[in-house]
Amino acid sequence: xxxxxxxxxxxxxxxxxxxxxxxxxxxxxxxxxxxxxxxxxxxxxxxxxxxxxxxxxxxxxxxxxxxxxxxxxxxxxxxxxxxxxxxxxxxxxxxxxxxxxxxxxxxxxxxxxxxxxxxxxxxxxxxxxxxxxxxxxxxxxxxxx
Length: 145
What we know:
10-stranded antiparallel sheet, Lipocalin, single chain, mainly beta
């Protein structure tokens, strides 16, 4: 019997690699993420620098294995996160004025822990793949456990 793989820890400071990613829609100038992962809680802060230099910040909190609620602008997203082997799946439904939006994000970490891939396979963003590179070791971000 093979030993079970441990689940990755996504804690760290991450920078989006535009060269390695497939983005749907207009690309921002820069995207960074600060992730604090303390199983079963994961907090994701996204900092986006748009063309022209304006900045947007969003923070999402997930409880892995439970349903959580997050706000995105004026919309509310109901989210459920769970482990599928070593991949974290984050599924969200958001009621927009014109329709119900559906997102299912699959997070995986490279074996060396330096690359975080967030893939949309079968949702409203199907085909989008965000590849982020670790900027500094988790212990130096102040986010380490």
